Amino acid sequence: MEDLLSVRKQKMRQVLQRRQPNLTVVLEDVHDPHNLAAVMRSCDAVGIMEIYLVNTLTPPINKLSKRSSAGAKKWVELHAFEDIDACMTAVKAKYDKVFATHLSQDAVSLYDLELKGSVALLFSNERIGLSPKILEYADSNFIIPMQGMVQSLNISVACAVSLFEVMRQRIDGGQYQVPQLPPETQSNIFEGWVKREL
Fold first, then answer.
1. Do residues 72 and 44 touch, judged by C-beta distance below 8 A?
2. pTM, whole model, 2 decimals?
3. Topology of domain 20-141+151-187, per CATH?
């Protein structure tokens, strides 16, 4: 058991070395627990530390976020809001740019975005799309280029595609090779993770 815990601790330290504190995802009215769980796994996979959930509909997002916890919720912090302004004010206070997945005249390709800086990516479910109100907070709109008849992807798939493009750019920029978190912050998070494991 002690050997297993030692291996787990080593993995935690390695993961913390690659966390990306200047990258997040914002989800508007994404209610399906399977989609939420899939998004959280993708976020953890690329080193995201926190995501923002804003729910303006029913049922309350807090109940759904618990159902969607799976394994990733232990490693990715959730911030739940019921008000768009409150959510996006918190996001804009921490992240320099907000890029929204929205088909518009001025939308650019995902692959033309500069994603190495402080970025929040904004998604909604494919049926409703992002609301006009939340789009007011976006600095730019982007699309994922597709070559078939279908013009939209499932939210969890769109999020994964986008995040792995972010990771590709950041690997090229050396951001996973150099720790982005201060040592003290890493230690504090590590202690919290170990307590959860125990």
1. yes
2. 0.90
3. Alpha/beta knot (3.40.1280)
Give dist(CA 48, CA 42) in Å, integer.
9
Q: What pLDDT band is residue 65 in, cutting at 50, 70 and 90?
A: very low
Cβ atoms 88, 60 nearer than 8 A: no
- Report pLDDT digits (tens) over 24-62: 999 999 988 999 999 999 999 999 999 999 998 755 544
Q: Which amino acid is it at 196?
A: R
Tokens of 159: 């999020």
Go through 153-178 and write b for each residue having 16 or more CB atoms within 10 A of its CB, e for each that does not.
bebbbbbbebbebbbebbeeeebbee
Domain chopping of the chain, boundaries: 20-141+151-187
**Run of H or E including 170:** helix 155-172
The span from the CA of 21 to the CA of 30, in Å, is 23
